[in-house]
Design goal:
Layout: H1 6-19, H2 24-34, H3 38-46, H4 50-61, H5 65-75, H6 84-101, H7 113-120, E1 132-133, E2 135-138, E3 144-147, E4 153-157, E5 160-165, E6 168-172, E7 181-186, E8 190-195, E9 201-204, E10 208-213, E11 221-232, E12 240-244, E13 247-251, E14 255-261, E15 264-271, E16 274-278, E17 282-286, E18 290-295, E19 301-304, H8 307-310, E20 317-323, H9 325-336, E21 339-343, E22 351-356, H10 361-372, E23 375-379, E24 382-386
Parallel strand pairs: 1-8, 6-8, 11-12, 21-24
Antiparallel strand pairs: 2-3, 2-7, 4-5, 5-6, 7-10, 8-9, 9-11, 10-11, 11-14, 12-13, 13-16, 14-15, 15-18, 16-17, 18-19, 20-22, 23-24
Helix pairs in contact: 1-2, 1-6, 5-6
């Protein structure tokens, strides 16, 4: 039995065993698998506990199986045309197969896992929640306004009308003459959408900010970004500039994502054209499907982009594809607004997988445990990850 076949076939054999519908030949194959590794027996025995099994199924249901896992499985040659309970079983084992194909053990828990479940039983523990629509708007006079999920907001700034609700802020500069500057900032665990006076739409990720005029002049359209934002720029004869980390991004009408954390700037172009400018009149042109990487304002490195990965945060996903564990932990810390304490050396290998950003912190930490073997615990706002 090959490793690629293993998750699907074994998942079905185990379910058949406990459902009482396994054939003698299938039982023989299952027995042979059980004696291969003590971890196989541990996994098999964990199915005896309905509560534990339900937790595992809930975890895999939180994965974006209809999107990424199934697409990868199809490319790997798996038959995904399943229905009913068999389809759900396939989903569960497909998640394992995809990660196993990437060189990661997924359904093979350590011998400590069942002990952890027992230890965690008892009163419910309140853990940090996923992020949501929240931001802070700073007006030109220094006044700040807290923006939330649903609250209606109507303001006036320099003759421009500002309206906001349900995670969006819209600027209307009709009739405005004065140009003032506002700053929209998202905290850890926050995201927000902004429509500028020219109709350009901006999505801000967690721990990000954008400084912008309430009305654009006749010369150009310039905004300043920190953190990460996705832009859909309205076409206009005036050029649009994004200033970030000492880099100037020049556009006329296009869609692109900019991620600028920890001194590294990644610009990913999905539509149109942008130009990356550095001091000294150095410039690089991007085409759709390309990404520009700038570190410490050195030369730009242009490469093919993984659009799905670059826009995953905007589409409500954590999407990891050959990512370092440090980068994965940083994303989790920003979105769940937690402090992470890492014990032991970080794994040198890279990891792949995805899960919805609205999954609970416990589910995301379960994912880390499954793919890396890390032991995770939460106490208040602190997450400890032991490798």
């Amino acid at each position: 039995m090959t490793q690629q076949q293993l998750p699907h076939q074994i998942a079905e054999l185990i379910v058949k065993h406990y459902a009482g519908g396994i054939s003698p030949e299938e039982q023989q194959r299952l027995n042979a698998w059980l004696v291969e590794d003590e971890r196989h027996r541990a996994l098999f025995d964990s199915f005896r506990h309905p509560a534990a099994l339900e937790k595992d199924m809930a975890f895999f249901d939180s994965l974006d199986l209809d999107a990424d896992w199934e697409a990868v499985a199809v490319r790997a040659g798996y038959n995904t045309q399943r229905t009913g309970n068999r389809r759900r079983i396939w989903y569960w084992s497909a998640a394992a197969a995809v990660l196993l194909g990437a060189g990661v053990f997924l359904l093979w828990p350590s011998g400590q896992r069942n002990e952890q479940r027992t230890a965690l039983a008892g009163p419910p523990v309140i853990t940090p929640q996923p992020g949501g629509n929240k931001a802070m708007l700073q007006l030109s006079n220094g006044k700040t306004v807290t923006l939330g999920q649903l609250a209606d907001t109507v303001l006036s700034e320099g003759g421009s009308r500002i309206s906001g609700n349900n995670g969006q802020l819209v600027y209307d500069a009709a009739g405005a003459e004065e140009v003032t500057y506002n700053t929209l900032s998202t905290p850890k665990g926050g995201q927000f959408r902004l429509t500028l006076a020219d109709g350009t739409a901006v999505w801000l990720n967690a721990s990000s900010s954008i400084r912008f005029p309430t009305r654009f002049t006749d010369n150009d359209r310039t905004v300043e970004l920190t953190g990460e934002g996705y832009f859909e720029v309205t076409k206009d004869h005036k050029p649009f500039f994004v200033s970030v980390n000492g880099v100037k991004i020049v556009v006329l009408g296009t869609r692109f994502n900019v991620m600028a954390y920890n001194g590294i700037t990644r610009t990913t172009l999905t539509e149109g054209a942008v130009k990356i400018q550095l001091p000294g009149n150095r410039a690089w042109q991007l085409k759709p499907g390309q990404q520009a990487l700038v570190q410490d304002n050195n030369d730009v490195k242009v490469m093919p982009a993984d659009i799905d990965k670059a826009l995953a945060w905007k589409n409500g996903l954590f999407y990891f594809k050959d990512d370092a564990m440090a980068d994965i932990i940083a994303q989790i810390a920003r979105w769940y607004d937690v402090e992470v304490v890492v014990k032991g050396p970080l794994p040198a290998r890279l990891f792949s997988g995805n899960v919805r950003r609205q999954a609970s912190l416990t589910q995301v930490l379960d994912m880390l445990h499954y793919v890396s073997g890390a032991q995770c615990s939460v106490e208040g706002n602190t997450v400890t990850i032991q490798f």
